């Protein structure tokens, strides 16, 4: 990022922070879903929640792939 001007560096840093937040959200959702499975919560509410979490994780994965080309973690 040495050849970027200050506004570009600022945007790159903000994007990198957002990328890390996205990874934190992914990890938390995975943990919640793991808890549902481990605790064998199979009622309708938890089954629906687990399905939605799987969908959200898929969307996060797609967003992660799209962001990856713009994010450099060289700090």
Structure overview:
This protein has 75 residues and is mostly helical. It has two helices and no strands. Helix 1 packs antiparallel against helix 2. It is elongated, with a radius of gyration of 17 Å. The mean pLDDT is 90.
Topology diagram in text:
Layout lengths: L5 H33 L5 H25 L7
Helix pairs in contact: 1-2
List descriptors:
mainly alpha; 77% helix; elongated; 75 residues
Radius of gyration: 17 Å
Number of strands: 0
Structural class label: mainly alpha
Strand content: under 5%
SSE order, as H and E?
HH
Quote the distance from N terminus to C terminus: 9 Å
Model regions low in confidence, pLDDT < 50 over at least 5 residues: none
In short:
With 75 residues, the protein is an all-alpha fold. 77% of the residues lie in helices and 0% in strands. It is built from two helices and no strands.
């Amino acid at each position: 990022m040495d050849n970027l001007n200050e506004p570009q560096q600022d945007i790159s840093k903000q994007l990198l922070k957002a990328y890390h937040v996205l990874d934190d959200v992914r990890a938390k959702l995975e943990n919640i879903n793991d808890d549902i499975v481990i605790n064998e919560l199979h009622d309708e509410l938890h089954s629906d929640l687990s399905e939605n979490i799987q969908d959200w994780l898929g969307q996060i994965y797609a967003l992660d792939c799209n962001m990856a080309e713009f994010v450099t973690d060289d700090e």
